[in-house]
Amino acid sequence: MNTPSSSMASPLVLPQDPHHHSEPSELARKLGYAGLIPFIGGALFIWLLSGRVEPPPFNFVVGAVTSYAALIVSFLGGVPWGLVMLRSAAGEADGPMHHRALWAGIAYSLAAWVALLMPPHAGLVVLGVLLIGCYLSDRKRYPELGMAGWMTMRFRLTVFASLSCFLAAAQI
Fold first, then answer.
1. 71-109 per-position pLDDT tens digit
2. Phi, psi of 11 (to 5 degrees)
3. Which of 18, 36, 74, 130 has the fewest CB atoms within 10 Å distance of its CB?
């Protein structure tokens, strides 16, 4: 017989070992690297289309790359929130590390929004810098939250995404 308590999910249990660090799954790696397609493809299109097409399609590609970069920076701001939520659900005390993670997440999103409002040649540079800033901030935060195993992938994604933003901005 299904009772309300028997149909509920089991409680979340996080590893107690402070040296345990989660690694990205195969799916997470594939999706992460697939997320580079709009960055690299967009930068490539901007370089190939610059001066060769009418402004409307060119501006569409520039806007698409800029918007995607802002969305990714905002997404990166949501990751610390999710990790803090998991830790809170597991009964971990709400401390200064959690507060810094939450504030950083909000700062990422607000900075990406400001960059999105800028002219694209400047906004893409700011977004590239923000991607690097997110990585540098997360280098400290991820180990604190048990996610250091994700940093190798994060480094690679950051290099290609930020470089794509800089190269696209240089061609506008």
1. 999 999 999 888 888 888 888 778 888 888 899 899 999
2. -65, 150
3. 18
Long-range contacts of 109-118 (CB under 8 A, 24+ apart): 109/73, 109/74, 109/77, 109/78, 111/73, 112/69, 112/70, 112/71, 112/73, 112/74, 112/77, 113/70, 113/74, 115/66, 115/69, 115/70, 115/73, 116/66, 116/67, 116/70
- Listed as own residue / partner, the contacts of 4-13 with beta carbons closer than 8 Å and 24 or more positions apart are 11/90, 12/86, 12/89, 12/90, 13/90
Instruction: Report the chain's C-alpha Rg in angstroms.
Output: 19
Which three-class secondary structure string do you get for 95-123? CHHHHHHHHHHHHHHHHHHHHHHCCHHHH
Cα separation, 39 vs 65, in Å, equals 6
pTM of the model: 0.85
pLDDT tens-digit series, residues 114-146: 999 999 999 999 999 999 999 999 898 888 778
